[in-house]
Amino acid sequence: MILTINCGSSSLKYQLYTTDLSEVVAKGLIARIGEDGSYSDHKAGGRGEKVELPVPDHKTALELMLASLMHADYGVIDCPAAITAIGHRAVHGGDVFVDSVVVDDAVMAQLRACVGFAPLHNPCNIAGIEAAMRLFPGVPNIVVFDTAFHQTVPPEAHVYALPYALYAKSGIRKYGFHGTSCRYVSQATADLLNWPIEDMKMVICHLGNGVTLTAVDGGRSVDTSIGFGTFGGVPMGTRSGDFDPSIIFHLVNQLGMSLKDVETLCYHKSGLLGVSGVSNDMREVTTRAADGDERCRLAVEIFVYQIKKTIGAYAAAMNGLDALVFTAGIGENSAEIRTRICSGLGFLGVRIDEATNEVARDGYPNISAADASVATLVVPTDEERMIAMDTLRLTPDHLLTTPRGVSARGYEQARPL
Q1: Is 247 annotated as a binding residue?
Q2: Quick check: is 250 in a domain?
Q3: Is 75 annotated as a binding residue?
Q4: What pLDDT sits at residue 212?
């Protein structure tokens, strides 16, 4: 059985697959790690349990995950040896990792060297891998990097116009994120349209609390909105998106803020939350905007405008556009935001059918109008399946066989997931 682990800064998501990836046997979320109100939510075939309990760190979170997978009532395995391979998400692989890799000492050393590129994310990714290696001794671990998909972005798009030595010696460049999601969604889009991905130009709009737009030409990332850190590009839930960097000097030199204060402002107090003054949740912001809250209305308009502008830029960069794709929390669930973004993109050939747009989550991914020359789709992302696919690809066949005498208890009952 293949286990996928996605360690965020304060959460851990996991899914357990059959070895052929045909079934999800169990899945769960451990949230608010290191915070008040932490909880574990585990599901297996219609059974499971959500409980609040202290989760001080990621090591404890993985121990809770294993306890849930082996639980007497809603567990699905008898012992850790039932897990034959583990796939992990890592946010940042620098320019070292251009593909997913099997973990060894050298890989762990390189991962630690990348911590400075993603200080909020990579440490918890590393903690998850280390904990998994202790809990599942001898089981191969595979790391899937969000940045790997964007290693095909050409130099003219990933090198900043700063002194070249900062790029050559210090690795300061655009890296891009949500690559695992983009890779899955771009191939799923080609499959849905029955169109060879090698012949397609598409823009993937990954719209959630974190937001990235990615230009995918022939199945390869050629530009993406988030750059060196994870607050650039278009505005997000609490992150600012791009702004004039001279503002930082003004905040420090004229308003007396520390660099730590500015970092907190850019990552945690900006975006939808910063403009609206209300929330980082698009659902609440759009509801209040409809009720006449002007700052919420402005927050939505800024969000939509910056996304629309980026789509146009990427169409120009690729010299065309065949598909516009929405995914992730906002992209998959907000018909209003999709309508607002697509409005005014008719010059590119983007036109949507409003009736289909309203029911896109009910099995109607293609929301294009009949006369549209660009296909517009809503494609649910599945980073966990992409991680599982790479884990299966990189694990030697002889290691994928469950040891004799080890059972996957409750498997038949868990199948309905």
Answers
A1: no
A2: yes
A3: no
A4: 94
User: Which residues are part of the catalytic machinery?
Assistant: 146
**pLDDT > 80? residue 202:** yes
209 among the known binding-site residues? yes
Q: Are residues 203 and 351 in the same domain?
A: yes
Based on the structure, what is the number of domains in the chain? Answer: 2
Least confident range from 60-69, 91-100, 182-191: namely 91-100
Rounded Cα distance between 390 and 181, Å, is: 13
Task: State phi, psi for 210 to the nearest 5 degrees.
Answer: -100, 145
Q: Is 319 among the annotated ligand-binding positions? A: no
Pairing between β-strand 85-90 and β-strand 375-378 as defined by DSSP bridges: unpaired
Q: What is the pLDDT of residue 414?
A: 40
Rounded to whole angstroms, how far apart are CA atoms 300 and 298? 5
Contact criterion met (CB below 8 Å) for 182 and 206: yes
Do residues 8 and 66 both lie within one domain?
A: yes
> Across all residues in the chain, what is the average pLDDT?
90
Q: Is residue 341 part of a domain?
A: yes
Question: Encoding tokens for residue 79?
Answer: 């012992």
Summarize pLDDT for 293-334 with one digit per residue, the tens.
999 999 999 999 999 999 999 999 999 999 999 999 899 999
Residue 282, annotated as binding a ligand:
yes
Of the candidates 34, 229, 223, 200, the one whose C-alpha atom is nearest the C-alpha of residue 119 is 229
Assigned domain for 175 exists: no
26 and 94 in a single domain? The answer is: yes
Q: Pull the structure tokens for residue 119.
A: 């200080």
Q: What domain range includes position 281? A: 194-378
Structure tokens given for 55 = 């989760």
Would you state the pLDDT for residue 407? 52
Which tokens belong to 299?
């927050």
- Among 378, 380, 304, CA closest to 345: 304
Whether residue 236 lies inside any domain: the answer is: yes
